[in-house]
């Protein structure tokens, strides 16, 4: 494997646990590093997503999907996944570290492999893949780069970055994924993948191992994709005559253009591989077989006469290969085993059998090629058409359309338009056969999970698992009743609140409203402290006024009142980050000067004192109505500076 070059990650302590030692490899989505798990004291491989992809939700979800897919598998031929997490903006995946090389490295060094080496490696690959298929997982990116050959002899499948749960028709939903050289015809033409798509990739890998090159070549990826969709993979023995016919048949079975003609999953192909190994080893046994033993292989891969194949025993066996003009049609593993194990009779019986088979093949070819049984391909441009338009197109192609269409929920196709057909578009069907339209009822209305109060990450997972699309950017609000980082509510695309019991369309986009905590309380803080606290919480501050606080509760320079943003009609509204909070700062208690009222009557003096901001009082007199008395003095005296609201005592001249 490649050694590390200068890389800022080397030497980094990831998530406080994984000490990065060296860079191993770099791919399209991530870089793989050798690291030490300090907690468990073991070497691990860590895949770190490229920084420029961290903000892309699709790549991030695909990266997390790899961890979930691989973690579900526990098999000796699948690379173990130990952990997955995020350190700052770096998403990472912790895997088992295998010291060794990839199958691609082996092919680069040796060119091609022997049939025995190919079968040994394929046995391990198919065993691991069978475990994945049994768990309901389709790999979707099988290629020599993802087959690891450890120094201790272990062989494992890695990189489930494109894997996903298998359904009857698993679609990519976007541009084709996987390496173009190993894509099945149905992935190229319809973007549909299931377990049989993995089998096709295995067949291409087997061809490459036996021949030393891929079956299709081209200057542009589209040229290779076209060949996958429209041509039949040739027999490996056409390029490498030492390949046994039984292996030819295995490769052709796995790479049949029609997925219905391939093994249904890796277990089926693995069982047949065991039978093929036994067949080849029987042919290479220690007991000498008769010279020029003739074997009739009715499903042989390549057109032409006979070819000599030398087995390990040194005996040359003549394999009579029937001439074929179409792709191999093998319904199941039992049929393949029967064909590859068939033996011919000598002499007259062999000649008669060949003549009979040729006659049958010719008749069958006429019936299915030009006669009543001729088949054609169901058009692929039907999705999205009206039922009337789709019916006209199918009838024009020679099909009969059922009067009773099937209806299904389909979030990708508008209601009352054609979603697909049964059989599906692109499949081969006999002319005159009945096709059933599958019409969309639009997206299914699904219940929205109750996620209020949950952490944002948990809420995203719950909504995604419920088949909703969660907007990458959540809305942030200040809320003193909900902890920071927890969900306040869920909103639909129109901003409507999706409360408990609400429903929403399948794959509809929802937005999380997440709390950033309460608005900080800045009352009676100094203006500088208030500004620091508010701006540190993501808010702005505005000093909207300075006022005297004659109550004495707020010292000068401190915040005595706060104003919050309002709606246009003046009503209170939710506070969000970057809102501006207004503050009024205290000027302390106002100071006033006691006026000179000596010599004035009580009524006049009282009015001047109150206007000056002090409270006048008088000493007790016998007469309780001193309105006409003259003021003889005040205390504090005239000119004294006192706090507004202070009491001034008045004396009179009797």
TrEMBL record:
Keyword field: ATP-binding, Kinase, Membrane, Nucleotide-binding, Serine/threonine-protein kinase, Transferase, Transmembrane, Transmembrane helix
Any one GO biological process: negative regulation of fatty acid biosynthetic process
Any Pfam family the entry gives: Pkinase
UniProt xrefs under InterPro entries: Kinase-like_dom_sf (IPR011009), PASTA_dom (IPR005543), Prot_kinase_dom (IPR000719), Ser/Thr_kinase_AS (IPR008271)
Keyword Membrane applies: yes
Reactions catalysed, as given in the entry: L-seryl-[protein] + ATP = O-phospho-L-seryl-[protein] + ADP + H(+); L-threonyl-[protein] + ATP = O-phospho-L-threonyl-[protein] + ADP + H(+)
Residues of the Protein kinase domain: 18-274
CDD domains, per database record: PASTA_pknB (cd06577), STKc_PknB_like (cd14014)
Start and end residues of each PASTA domain: 373-441, 513-587, 588-654
GO MF: ATP binding; protein serine/threonine kinase activity
EC nos: 2.7.11.1
SUPFAM superfamilies membership: Protein kinase-like (PK-like)
Protein's name in the database: non-specific serine/threonine protein kinase
Annotated source species: Amnibacterium flavum
């Amino acid at each position: 494997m490649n050694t590390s070059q200068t890389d800022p990650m080397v030497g980094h302590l990831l998530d406080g646990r994984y000490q990065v030692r060296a860079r191993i490899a770099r791919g399209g989505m991530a870089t793989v590093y050798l690291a030490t798990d300090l907690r468990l004291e073991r070497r691990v491989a860590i895949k770190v997503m490229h920084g420029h992809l961290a903000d892309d939700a699709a790549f991030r979800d695909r990266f997390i999907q790899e961890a979930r897919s691989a973690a579900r598998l526990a098999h000796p031929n699948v690379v173990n996944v130990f952990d997955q997490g995020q350190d700052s903006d770096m998403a990472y995946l912790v895997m088992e570290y295998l010291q060794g090389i990839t199958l691609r490295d082996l092919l680069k060094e040796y060119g091609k492999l022997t049939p025995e080496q190919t079968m040994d490696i394929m046995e391990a690959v198919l065993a691991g893949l069978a475990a994945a298929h049994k768990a309901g997982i389709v790999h979707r990116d099988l290629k020599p780069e993802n087959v690891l050959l450890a120094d201790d002899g272990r062989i494992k499948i890695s990189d489930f970055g494109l894997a996903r749960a298998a359904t009857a028709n698993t679609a990519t939903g976007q541009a084709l994924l996987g390496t173009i050289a190993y894509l099945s015809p149905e992935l190229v033409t319809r973007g549909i993948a299931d377990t049989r798509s993995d089998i096709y990739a295995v067949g291409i890998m087997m061809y490459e191992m036996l021949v030393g090159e891929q079956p299709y070549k081209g200057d542009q990826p589209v040229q290779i994709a076209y060949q996958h969709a429209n041509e039949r993979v040739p027999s490996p023995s056409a390029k490498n005559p030492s390949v046994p016919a039984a292996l030819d048949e295995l490769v052709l079975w796995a790479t049949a253009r029609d997925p219905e003609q391939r093994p249904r999953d890796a277990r089926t192909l693995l069982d047949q591989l065991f039978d093929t190994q036994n067949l080849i080893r029987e042919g290479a046994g220690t007991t000498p077989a008769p010279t020029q033993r003739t074997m009739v292989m009715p499903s042989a891969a390549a057109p032409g006469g006979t070819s000599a194949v030398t087995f390990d025993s040194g005996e040359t066996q003549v394999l009579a290969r029937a001439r074929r003009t179409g792709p191999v049609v093998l319904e199941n593993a039992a049929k393949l085993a029967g064909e590859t194990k068939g033996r011919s009779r000598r002499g007259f019986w062999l000649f008669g059998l060949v003549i009979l088979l040729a006659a049958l093949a010719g008749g069958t070819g006429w019936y299915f090629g030009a006669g009543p049984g001729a088949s054609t391909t169901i058009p692929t441009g039907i999705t999205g058409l009206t039922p009337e338009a789709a019916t006209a197109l199918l009838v024009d192609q020679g099909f009969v359309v059922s009067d009773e269409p099937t209806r299904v929920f389909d979030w990708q196709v508008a209601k009352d338009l054609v979603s697909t057909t049964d059989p599906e578009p692109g499949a081969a069907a006999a002319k005159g056969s009945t096709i059933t339209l599958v019409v969309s009822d639009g997206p299914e209305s699904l219940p929205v999970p109750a996620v209020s109060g949950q952490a944002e990450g948990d809420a995203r997972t719950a909504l995604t698992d419920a088949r909703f699309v969660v907007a990458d950017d959540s809305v942030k609000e200040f809320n003193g009743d909900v902890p920071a980082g927890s969900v306040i509510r869920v909103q639909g695309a129109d901003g409507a609140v999706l409360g408990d019991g609400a429903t929403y369309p399948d794959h509809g986009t929802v937005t999380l409203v997440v709390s950033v905590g309460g608005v900080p309380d800045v009352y009676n803080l100094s203006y500088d402290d208030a500004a620091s606290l508010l701006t540190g919480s993501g808010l702005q501050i505005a000093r909207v006024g300075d006022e005297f606080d004659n109550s004495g509760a707020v010292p000068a320079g401190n915040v005595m009142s706060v104003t919050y943003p309002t709606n246009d009609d003046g009503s209170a509204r939710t506070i969000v980050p970057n809102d501006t909070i207004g503050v009024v700062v205290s000027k302390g208690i106002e100071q006033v000067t006691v006026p000179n009222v000596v010599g004035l009557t009580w009524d006049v003096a009282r009015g001047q004192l109150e206007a000056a901001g002090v409270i006048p009082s008088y000493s007790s007199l016998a007469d309780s109505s001193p309105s006409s008395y003259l003021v003889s003095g005040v205390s504090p005296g005239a000119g004294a500076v006192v706090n507004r609201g202070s009491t001034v005592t008045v004396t009179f001249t009797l």
